[in-house]
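Summary of Year 1 activities. Much of the first year was spent building the evaluation harness for sequence design. The harness presents a backbone, in tokenized form, and records the residue chosen at every position. We chose the following record to illustrate the format because it has been used consistently in internal testing since the harness was completed.
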């Protein structure tokens, strides 16, 4: 009995520390105790558990244009929203061409021909991606550029007379700029223009686009006028003198003209008419030589007593006593202040007056001494021409 008590005391003494430290087990031999679970970290008492990250949402704002030709710019524009953070990345892709870009807005001109589904997604600052959203764009084949060509460059008349007009016409395609030289410059791709070159001219049209150039040339031949010379004498039946009598009187036709005054102090004016009906309407008068030098008679001293002899234009008509001029004459085309001055000479003023008369049948002039009707000296002062002594040597150019 004493031995059993001593054994119990010994067992209690040995087991007590193990019980106190938790290292002692009463499980039967061969049974393995389960591993002790290490409790996870828990939020401090009174604080809620952290929220789960919410993924962002992607939006496609616009794809413009919705239909484009190959090689044309297409703009992809979108954005994203993250309710619990920030959007930090973007992805665009095409159902045909794959990845397109990584920005909110992407501009591309490399989309293939076809109907594209365009996908877009965004990523937040926690690494989560949104679901993809989609839209569409159609890419059509690119149109072939209009070829640069000069379709036509023509002239209505390639041979003209000097002073005449002809018309250039042209049609060009695919040009950025069209010019015609000489003297015309920049023109539209299709047009016409009248030209009147003064000499034979080649007109060149040039069409350009970038480094491409096209040329064409048309020529216009300008024919010089023919030169002619003609000598006119006064028409006898329309060349005469008119006396300032009471009433005025006209000399009989064919007697020529006298200008000056008579001893009875009657003034005389002379009128000469030239037939210019054979000079063509297109004539250009280049020179006129006036030859009144072979007058047939002189009475008294007309230049000393009556002053200078002047010749004026006369409006053509049948001469009668009413043609005696009584006003103050102006616009002389010839002037002689002595017999020595009445020699053959070229006259620019007669040339110009005759040019203005081209196209009419007659050229008529009036002879008158100074501005006086008579010097009232009681003597006879005059100079006389027969019709064939009044001569105009005319040179002109014409295409007829």
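For this record, the design step produced the sequence shown next.
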């Amino acid at each position: 009995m004493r031995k059993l008590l001593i054994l119990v005391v010994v067992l209690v003494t040995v087991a007590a520390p193990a019980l106190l430290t938790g290292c002692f087990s009463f499980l039967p031999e061969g049974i393995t105790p389960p591993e002790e679970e290490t409790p996870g970290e828990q939020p401090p008492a009174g604080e809620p558990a952290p929220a789960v990250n919410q993924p962002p949402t992607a939006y496609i704002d616009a794809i413009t244009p919705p239909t484009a030709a190959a090689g044309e710019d297409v703009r992809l524009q979108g954005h994203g929203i993250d309710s619990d953070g920030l959007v930090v990345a973007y992805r665009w892709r095409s159902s045909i061409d794959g990845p397109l870009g990584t920005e909110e807005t992407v501009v591309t001109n490399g989309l293939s021909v076809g109907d594209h589904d365009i996908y877009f997604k965004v990523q937040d600052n926690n690494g989560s991606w949104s679901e993809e959203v989609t839209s569409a764009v159609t890419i059509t084949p690119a149109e072939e550029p209009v070829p640069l060509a000069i379709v036509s460059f023509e002239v209505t008349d390639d041979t003209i007379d000097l002073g005449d007009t002809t018309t250039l016409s042209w049609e060009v395609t695919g040009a950025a700029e069209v010019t015609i030289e000489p003297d015309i410059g920049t023109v539209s791709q299709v047009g016409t223009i009248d030209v009147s070159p003064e000499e034979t001219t080649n007109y060149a049209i040039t069409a350009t686009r970038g480094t491409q150039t096209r040329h064409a040339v048309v020529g216009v031949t300008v024919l010089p006028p023919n030169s002619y010379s003609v000598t006119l004498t006064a028409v006898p039946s329309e060349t005469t003198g008119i006396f300032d009598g009471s009433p005025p009187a006209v000399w009989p036709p064919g007697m020529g003209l006298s200008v000056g005054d008579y001893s009875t102090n009657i003034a005389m004016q002379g009128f000469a008419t030239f037939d210019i009906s054979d000079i063509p309407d297109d004539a250009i008068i280049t020179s006129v030589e006036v030859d009144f030098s072979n007058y047939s008679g002189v009475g008294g001293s007309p230049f000393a007593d009556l002053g200078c002899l002047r010749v004026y234009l006369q409006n053509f008509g049948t001469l009668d006593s009413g043609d005696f001029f009584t006003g103050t004459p102006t616009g002389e085309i010839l002037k002689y202040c002595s017999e020595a001055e009445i020699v053959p000479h070229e006259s620019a003023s007669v040339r110009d007056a005759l040019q203005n008369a081209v196209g009419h049948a007659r050229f008529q002039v009036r002879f008158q001494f100074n501005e006086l009707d008579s010097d009232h000296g009681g003597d006879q002062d005059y100079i006389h021409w027969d019709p064939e002594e009044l001569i105009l040597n005319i040179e002109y150019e014409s295409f007829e």
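The two ends are 175 Å apart (CA to CA). Quantitative recovery figures across the full test set are reported in Table 2.
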